[in-house]
TrEMBL record:
Domain of life per record: Bacteria
Name of the featured protein: MaoC dehydratase-like protein
Gene3D superfamilies to which the protein is assigned, alphabetical: Hotdog Thioesterase
InterPro entries: HotDog_dom_sf
Organism: Silicimonas algicola
């Protein structure tokens, strides 16, 4: 078992991008939503949390690793962060450790969860349904998200230039992605999230609240990808409306990762 780092120190960086317009990742929209400035995308914070797994387990983690995270506090551009992990524990099918990301100056925990490495990647279901993206998109109002709703997607080639842009966004320095022509775990979340949400018109810019990830195989650059997604759960608490999506990403006809993602989509 390769040694995993116990602690990493990172500075949150949010580079301006045109695609952030109208989202919580630009100052104007974030302030209208009650935040003091643009939020670092949750997928970036996820990427920081899983760097411990990537540094220690490398390509094995990209092929059969897992993670479960919940975002607890906003992260802003320039925030100093500390990533820590707990003791490795043996489970029935691999290893797991608690992981946390905290603000280095205040100690406030901004992400909590776990990382793990399966002995063997689980088998995906057969014949995952693949639909076209809704046209027109389905408008959701608070409380109208429906469990079991299957969502559509279109085939997209994740080409080298797009993947390199994603690595730059994440400020990722691990050489494995360039050396092995593989796609970053955070880029895969971006892909399935974009595919699923591309079917919907929501009352506000969605806030990424948490995700469970199970890698099934490495994801190569330059292949056609498509997402099989459905809404699996809906709930409301304190006027905040959520839905959960299960998203399987396929490279050609081969599933490479499963995401179970929690989305805050309305506040009443």
């Amino acid at each position: 078992m390769p040694a995993l780092p116990e602690r990493l120190e990172i500075t949150a960086v949010l580079d301006p991008r045109p695609r952030y317009r109208g989202t919580s990742h630009e100052d104007e929209t974030a302030r209208r939503m009650g935040f003091r400035a643009a939020l670092l995308p949750g997928v970036f914070v996820y990427g920081h949390a899983t760097r411990i797994a990537l540094t220690g387990w490398g390509e094995d983690w990209l092929a059969r690793g897992r993670a479960q995270v919940r975002f607890r506090r906003p992260v802003y551009n320039g925030d100093p962060l500390v990533v820590t992990r707990g003791e490795l524990e043996r489970e029935e099918n691999g290893w797991t450790a608690e992981v946390a990301v905290a603000h280095a100056e205040t100690g406030e925990v901004v992400l909590a969860g776990s990382i793990g490495l399966a002995d063997r990647a689980p088998d995906p279901p057969k014949d995952l349904p693949l639909l076209s993206t809704f046209e027109p998109r389905l408008e959701l109002q608070p409380g109208t998200a429906r469990e079991g709703l299957q969502l559509g997607s279109e085939e997209t080639i994740l080409a080298r230039d797009l993947v390199e842009e994603s690595l730059a966004d994440f400020h990722e320095t691990e050489s494995i992605f360039a050396d092995r022509a593989l796609i970053h775990s955070g880029c895969l979340i971006r892909k399935t999230m974009g595919d699923a949400l591309g079917n919907l018109v929501l009352p506000m810019p969605v806030i990424f609240a948490g995700v469970g990830v199970q890698h099934l195989a490495t994801a190569p650059v330059g292949v056609e990808y498509r997402t099989s997604a459905r809404i699996t759960r809906t709930w409301e608490t304190g006027g905040k409306h959520y839905f959960e999506t299960e998203e399987w990403l396929l490279a050609g006809d081969r599933p490479v990762v499963r995401h179970v993602r929690q989305n805050l989509y309305a506040i009443t």
